[in-house]
Amino acid sequence: MDEKKETFHYTYSAAQQEEIRSIREKYTPPAQEEDKMERLRRLDQSVTRPGMITALTVGIISTLVMGAGMSCIMVWENLLIPGVIIGVVGMIGVIAAYPIYSRITKKQRDKLAPEIIHLSDELMK
Q1: Which residue in 25, 32, 101, 118 has the most C-beta neighbors within 10 A?
Q2: What's the whole-model pTM score?
């Protein structure tokens, strides 16, 4: 008397397998060290990101201030002088956004240049 063990096997499609693999990768620790090229790309992005965020924030806020000054001039006749002053302050902020970006980016480049040059030298060999 042979007892047959009936089992059920199901295989997932290729798309489901890929989805399962991507979900699993989120929860497993990285098995290997970060690729040098990926590290170089990440370092390159980290040079410009802080300056870009700061400059955009200053520029957007300054544009809103300049618009508030224009509103004061155009809508309320008795706020002409304060509106001009507010608008000029906004313009100064807009003009200052690019030099702020340049200064922060230069500091980041000076700080990360040795590491980026070292990694690029290793990759070019």
Answers
A1: 101
A2: 0.63
